[in-house]
Amino acid sequence: MQPPVVTGTDLRKVFRTPGAGGKVWALDGVSIEVRAGELTALVGPDGAGKTTLMRLMAGLLVADGGSLRVLGFDPAVEPQRIQDRIGYMPQKFGLYEDLSVQENLDLYADLHGVSAAQRGQRYPQLMQMTDLGRFTGRLAGRLSGGMKQKLGLACTLVRSPELLLLDEPTVGVDPLSRRELWVIVEHLVHEQGLTVLTSTSYLDEAEKAARVLVLHRGKVLAQAEPAAVTRAAAGRSMVLDPGSGPSARIVQARLLDDPEVIDAVPDGGLVRVVGSGEPGPGRDTIAGLAPRHVEPRFEDGFMVLLRGTAAHETGVDIRLQRPPAAAAAGAVVEVRDLVKRFGDFTAVDHVSFRVRRGEIFGLLGPNGAGKTTTFRMLCGLLPPSGGVLQVAGVDVGSAGAAARARLGYVAQKFSLYGALTVTENLEFFASAYGLRGALRRERIDWAVRQFELGGHARTASGELPGGFKQRLAMGAALLHEPDILFLDEPTSGADPLARRAFWRRITALAEQGVTIIVTTHFMQEAEYCDRIAIMDGGRVLAQGSPAQIRGLAPTGGGRQPSMEDAFIAVVENARGRDAQARA
Amino acid sequence: MKDRESWRPKGRRILAMVKKESRQMIRDPATIAVGVVLPVILILLFGFGLSLDVKNVPLAVVLQDSSATAQNLLSAFALSRYFRPQVVHSSQAAERLMIEGRVDGMLTIPSDFARRFGAGNARVQLVVHGSDANRARIIESYVEGAVGAWSARQAVQEGTAAGGGPVEIRSRLWFNSANDSRYFLVPGLIVLVMTLIGAFLTAMVVAREWERGTFEALFVTPVRSGEILLGKTIPYFALGVLGLLLCVAAGKFLFHVPIVGSLAVLIGGSMLYVMVALGVGLLISSYFKNQLVASQLTMLATFMPALMLSGFLFDLRSMPAPIRAITYLLPARYYVALLQTTFLAGDIWPVILPNAAALAVMVALLGYASRAVTRKRLG
């Protein structure tokens, strides 16, 4: 057997945090191994130390302790020798947006000393793999998120590296592009024998790896093949059928408080539960329902591992002080034939949907489907080119300010003031929403309490860990107690634990009458929604309950079709029809 | 240690960085605005300032000659839209007006003016308020023009060669008599433009990469940090030389500034200064990694001193000693000295060499420092 490509022993790295005045051990005695010719996945919650570990390997950071060998070199001593040999795709690849696709590729090929002959062979391969061939002249800044990631990968693959490091390559990438990216990575590993280390917050991706490294708070929880991680949940995985009772989402949210439940998620109309008890038959009933034991999956094992370390916050049951009044029957949000054109490009093309009070409505779609544009029009940030747009019974076009007062918006990018502290941001937004005096103080206290921001009250919000940024953004959007909440990709880049905590709050808000419209790239999260719409090319392709949408997936292959299967089928069918119509 | 084989990939990498940087430079409208449009605007602005700013100059005329000829000259001034003459009868009165700042100059028409004019060797004396050297030069040339035109007209009217020789103007600058560079403006302009292009533009380029996160991927390639810096220096150096040529051409062809020294020395010295400016910009940018901070700091550290402490606007010799000591740290000081010498005095090597040497030392120090702060490490 070949020697490992990377070996790290007792690695330590400390960061000083300016706000809290303390030290954070990003890596706290990590010993790892990356084997040659294999795909190794690095998983763990935000702040587990995944990026730090990759940067150590790439020679971009120097460890404070322990020893590390990459391709036989010490990255602290000879970083250049490693950098000459590896490919590294940082989380934010940082393409030169003012250079074209071809110019970006050429730059990296030149730097790696790829000869013209090698290019003649390599470029067509890369173009075919990434499907970027049609866009070589386009500026990188004008590519969609998924295409940018693929170009980033292509730039690191202009020559065959001896080791490929990928840091969360699929964050913010839609399911279609994500699948395409993985086809490329698996091809590289299986056909070309490349050694790949990739970090990811998608557990289904980790399952495809030969070995998984589970990191948590700077320590290694497990280093094994995925099946071994899955086995940690052996005999603990169950499903509950809520039948005609409360919906799966509500049952699931309540179960998260149960000390004997490690994890509970809605799954195809059922509730999937991982129990904390000893492997065995378990309790007779859970939440008054009879459990049925099922085969564990990787995610179940991962949750068992994480729970073994410490009790983890799963999101408090958020309580509104003044829940939205029970409105008259009818839609809270009504969109009819909504159109938005930018020049001769139609970003939103006759979109219609209605959302009732207290509903969670999911908008799913590939990058560039028109979801964000729709959101901006709903919030009155962008005037529509045509159609009817009513929010809370008010026409957004004619009474934008009145409509805005009743809605909260969490944008895709963190859009709070990074240099202001958590408290200062909340104070600013409270004032911006017109809150004064006692009410303002009360609402800020509420937000700090509900989102557990107390410990970070005086931290500059730009320095908050990812999960806390997201909570602060939510807290700020809820200060004025809106009836309607718009959330644009709130969980992009969030780890499984943070996502559960997030959905727990969303579910609680909806129960209290808040209407929620949300976009996401995580197809399992669509299970939390009452209804979803799949968009592509500015149009709504399918609309209905999660069960109805899942029903659109082709059956076969022996397994239950997933939401992701349905999504891909719907989008690809529509694209196929369009291609035929054009031909 | 380095054999020839290892230089080839090195050259290729530098070339790749230069190509990339040049493309980005050309595609960024702000770069072109600062590098090409701004110099042109400055040149035109200063150029029009020369001809448009000065009108209705208050001028004290000490009329010591009461002859018709002298009266005639006075009326030529009175009718001109450039002057507002005020007749006084003693030089003391005129001096008082000058000191109080009520007039910008005093023209003395001596008692023997008419007699000497007839003889063809008439003289007038002009004293100009020199606190604003630029304005003073303009006033001086206007008076010259007015007197010249008048005497030519007289000659035609008299119809005799004897009546109306040229009038000699004896002029002096008051309050700033040392500053006698007639075309100080263009060399000064060159200093400003070179500082802008060199320091201001490069202050953004390294910080921009840090801000946009483009360095992280670039670092994990065979490219060395020195090659990254070189790749950033070369295109901006070229842009700086372009700006320089624009300024020199404008000075020569638009404003007819003489270049007494050789063009080679002028351009060679300027290239040295561009390198210093580039070095300052790169160093600030590499250290602060933030475009806003870098640009503000560069403005404070290079542009303002180049404007105020280089001897371009304010005479170094009239500064208090501590401030004068500070100016020795400023590259612009050496460059201004070098430029003034080559433009106005010629290739005076005892002046050029020490100034050029000072700039060269700065290039070396800045290059070394930039190289030291740009390391392929995060955090």
**Measured distance between first and last alpha carbons of chain A:** 53 Å
Count of separate structural domains of chain A: 3
Q: Provide the structure class of chain A.
A: alpha/beta
Percentage beta strand of chain A: 15-25%
- For the record, give the distance between the C-alpha atoms at the N and C termini of chain B, rounded to a whole number: 31 Å
Strand content of chain B is 5-15%
The percentage helix of chain A is: 25-40%
Low-confidence stretches of chain B: 175-182
- Order of helical and strand elements of chain B: HHEHEHEHEHEHHHHHHHH
Going across the major beta sheet of chain B, what is the strand order?
2-1-3-4-5
Mean pLDDT of chain A: 87
Shape of chain A: globular
How would you state the average pLDDT of chain B, rounded? 82
Largest sheet of chain A: 6 strands, mixed
Whole-number tally of structural domains of chain B: 2
Count of individual beta strands of chain A: 23
Radius of gyration of chain B: 27 Å
Largest sheet of chain B: 5 strands, mixed
> What portion of residues of chain B is helical?
55-70%
Number of helices of chain B: 14
